[in-house]
Amino acid sequence: MVNAVRVHNYGDPSVLVWEKVDVGAPGVGQVRIKHLAVGLNYIDTYHRSGLYPLETLPAILGLEAAGEIIAVGPEVDGLSIGDRVAYTDQLGAYAEERLVEADRLVKIPDGIDVLTAAAMMLQGLTVHYLLKKTFQVGPQTTLLFHAAAGGVGLIACQWAKYLGATIIGTVSSDEKGEIAKAHGCTHVINTKRDDFVARVKDITDGHGCDVVYDGIGKDTFPASLDCLKTFGLWVTFGNASGPIKAFDIGLLGKKGSLFATRPSLFHHIASREDLTCSAADLFDVVAKGIVKISVNQNYPLRDAAKAHADLEARATTGSTVLLP
Ligand code: NDP
Hints:
With about 325 residues, this protein is α/β, with parallel strands linked by helices.
């Protein structure tokens, strides 16, 4: 038996319970991993609250972790006991040990520590597709990134700067603004003080942005649409403030023949080839120091409830890991 954090019912962070679970031996195509660090992501709070319902309850939360292989099942190629590995799309990460499908693992390259690996997979692969696939960000791009000092946000600022873009980032405090700037954000807007639509208009001489990346959801809709130039792209990819209610699609026409997309990382890494290619790109920018993963908080895994509360209270910056 090992310790894990499970939910039996949806609700606030108090539904996260620390309890013993059985892991068992790896089956065909599986390995058993001892987790050394678990990544905390906003989606974990949606799974906990029921905003994104889980297939079954009780369930062990968490999609992302890094650790060491301690047992290998039949028909697993290329992985051995002792290998350092990470994954990002397998529910059940909030546990000291677990079984996982071998074909969803990537080996952690030498030079990247397990804490960094656990913190960066989900957020880093998200930034990869947002900047390179959803929209091809380059030197001509002016983009708005909400929650620029968050986990996804700090990675996006650094990577977009490397790609040559002009980055406008929103934050809710001057302290967070300083952090975003230190990570490459060109212009910072403190939304507690300033109207972000007016500030974006000022910064872009009234033109608006090519693309808006919005992980806030309810609170920034429809204002985010007013930050786009004609034919601009609205990328709504999260609900930190709650989901956006149904709206009249004609709004996109009225606001300037806008494009809109609601992407998910899990489609972008569904095939083994896409997972390994995207992870190789991410490991490359991290190994070269182009993107630094700011692991600004860590909590014992058993205190996952506190970590969730802090994340939802906007009290964190950068990435967070839970330590088994
Ligand atoms: P963050 O570290 O960015 O934390 C969320 C941030 O959102 C807060 O720090 C806060 O920043 C901002 N925020 C604004 N309003 C609220 C609110 N009412 N309640 C809480 N936070 C608020 O989280 P992540 O980096 O883990 O994720 C960022 C977003 O990206 C989330 O919406 C997440 O679901 C989404 N996501 C989507 C993926 C996809 O493929 N679709 C994949 C990965 C993440 P501030 O105080 O500065 O405003």
